[in-house]
Design brief:
The complex is a heterodimer of chains A (97) and B (295).
Chain A lengths: L5 E5 L7 E7 L6 E6 L3 H18 L5 E7 L4 H23 L1
Parallel strand pairs in A: 3-4
Antiparallel strand pairs in A: 1-2, 2-4
Helix pairs in contact in A: 1-2
Chain B lengths: L7 E6 L3 H6 L7 E5 L9 H14 L6 E5 L8 H9 L5 E4 L5 H17 L8 E6 L2 H5 L1 H5 L7 E4 L1 H8 L11 H14 L2 E4 L8 H14 L3 E4 L5 H8 L3 H19 L6 E2 L2 E2 L2 H16 L7
Parallel strand pairs in B: 1-2, 1-8, 2-3, 3-4, 4-5, 5-6, 6-7, 7-8
Antiparallel strand pairs in B: 9-10
Classes of the chains: A alpha+beta (97), B alpha/beta (295).
């Protein structure tokens, strides 16, 4: 079980929200983020920065993140990433038993 | 401390970023960011984190910010309180409040958190939500269970379900219960806020119910949609004539004081303590509503 990827998801595709899927897998080397956003051109780098910073604050060094943004504020992005990571970690705990 | 106006308390679903962002712009006196009924069991964790971040980031200016946590008897309530209180909301709305112990438990937890974050003890207020037979039975003790309790809220839907009453728009089945909540609030010197009016398409019904609860003496009402703010505020805002009369009452009192006259009369009517007190209340409402600048 230990080698299985652990997945957590949070958020929605509604306006001002972001749907975040975090995959914690032993095969993943570093952080890889796939971002889809209508405002990617203007705010893409800021969204990526917020996601990376949130992962860093939670001590996550290796993860694959898929984020579908619908115009979320930084505080929402941070919340959805944190929830997705915590859900993935819970998944991991369960998987380890 | 100036008295807060609590004509409307607008419920905002705690897991909806758009509504949370916009909660302060509609002009409700209070917003109630909801982690309880508006959030499904599966999303309790997500909503708690989202609200925590929102409280850190969004400035709701003069709007009173209240968070309805889950009952402390559920697996979510303690975590809600621990996470949310650190962000210093104005108040916590305590659902399914049934006893003094329910209030005291929240009080103790808040005291501990305030100490940890170096916030003056008692800063975060409590608003018990009375929505069961047991809650109504103990409402007088609940209202006085802690210095933090600043308002009692009534939850009519859960109450009628608990007691087995039939819920009608007319609300005859709730008359004595509303009177009891109001009395408990007044004995404790705090506000009484009425239940929500669930049909957002029935403005006439909302107006009738609001007029009725104002007549009973309630300070305001919980609401579920921004479209309910204006009708409720209109009912709770004194009319121009009421304000003018109240100003004349206060002026007559001042004049009598200056003349050291024992008896005060206005338009041939004696001004006694209840008349003076009503006039002051009207002017306080008018000032809070921005209709006058000084009392």
């Amino acid at each position: 079980m230990k080698d299985t990827a652990k997945i957590g998801q949070s958020g929605t595709l509604e306006s001002s929200d972001i749907l975040v899927m975090v995959q914690l897998s032993p095969d993943q080397n570093g952080i890889r983020i796939e971002l889809e956003s209508p405002s990617k051109k203007c705010f893409g780098s800021q969204i990526l920065k917020t996601i990376k910073q949130t992962l860093h604050n939670l001590g996550i060094m290796n993860a694959y993140v898929k984020a579908q943004d619908r115009g979320a504020l930084d505080c929402t992005i941070n919340a959805r990433v944190e929830t997705a990571v915590k859900r993935a970690l819970k998944f991991k705990e369960k998987g380890d038993v | 401390m100036e008295k807060r106006l609590r004509r409307t308390a607008l419920y905002i679903p705690g897991n909806n970023p758009t509504m949370i962002q916009n909660a302060g712009i509609f002009g409700a006196d209070s917003i109630v960011l909801d982690l309880e009924d508006a959030v499904s069991i599966e999303e309790k964790d997500a909503a708690r984190i989202l609200l925590r971040n929102a409280l850190r980031t969004i400035d709701y200016k003069n709007t009173e910010v209240v968070v309805r946590i889950n009952p402390l008897s559920t697996p979510y309530g303690h975590e809600d309180l621990k996470v949310i209180a650190r962000e210093k909301p104005d108040a916590i709305r305590l659902p399914k409040c049934e006893s003094v112990e329910d209030v005291q438990e929240a009080d103790k937890l808040l005291t501990k958190i305030e100490e940890n974050i170096e916030l003056k003890e008692g800063t975060i207020k409590l608003m018990p939500l009375i929505e069961s037979a047991k809650g109504i039975f103990n409402v007088f003790e609940i209202a006085r269970a802690s210095q933090r309790v600043v308002a009692l809220n009534f939850g009519a839907e859960d109450y009628t379900a608990d007691i087995g009453a039939e819920r009608t728009k007319e609300g005859k089945e709730l008359l004595d219960i509303r009177a009891r909540i109001l009395l408990a609030a007044r004995v404790a010197g705090i506000d009484a806020l009425d239940s929500v009016f669930g049909d957002i398409n029935d403005e006439k019904g909302l107006i009738e119910e609001t007029k009725f609860i104002k007549q009973l003496g309630f300070n305001g009402k919980s609401i579920i949609h921004p479209c309910q703010i204006k009708p409720v505020h209109q009912i709770f805002t004194p009319s121009e004539d009421e304000i003018k009369y109240a100003q004349r009452v206060i002026a007559a009192i001042e004049e009598a004081k200056a003349k050291k006259s024992g008896v005060i009369a206005l338009d041939g009517r004696m001004i006694d303590a209840p008349v003076a007190s009503r006039a002051r209340r009207i002017l306080a409402f008018a000032k809070a509503a921005g209709l006058i600048s000084v009392i």
